[in-house]
Design a protein that fits this description.
This protein is α+β, with helices and mostly antiparallel strands. It is globular and about 35 Å long.
């Protein structure tokens, strides 16, 4: 797993709350709006997100077993806020990319440093 469970817990309680506002507006960041599988509660999770021709690719810095990833896959859709815009996305697809070719070069370097090679592709409904 790229980043440990302890770090994930700290980020969920502290860092995520501080970064939600800026993440919705900064390039390379976004906020995934998703619904809990069991609770039905709406959640907001800041992520590293990169545009593609027909949607977005999200770097899974906590791995493919993160709760938000499970929620999005179970629902088959989510919303994302990035650069101040909200988009409905669907067709979640997990993939592994050791070369990190799906993201811009500077992000590749950072993701390689943290051993992140798992990604979630999300597509626009009309794509």
């Amino acid at each position: 797993m790229p980043l440990g469970r302890r770090m994930a817990g700290f980020n969920r309680r502290v860092t995520n709350r501080l970064t939600l506002g800026p993440a919705a507006h900064l390039p390379g960041f976004g906020v995934v709006l998703h619904v809990g599988r069991r609770s039905g509660r709406r959640y907001r999770t800041p992520v590293n997100v990169f545009p593609t021709a027909d949607g977005y690719v999200v770097a899974l810095t906590y791995g493919r077993d993160a709760e938000w990833v499970k929620n999005v896959r179970a629902a088959g859709s989510c919303e994302i806020i990035t650069r101040g815009r909200t988009e409905q996305l669907g067709s979640p697809r997990l993939f592994r990319d050791e070369g990190r070719a799906a993201v811009p070069f500077p992000a590749r370097l950072v993701l390689r440093l943290f051993h992140v090679a798992d990604f979630l592709e999300l597509r626009r409904p009309d794509a």
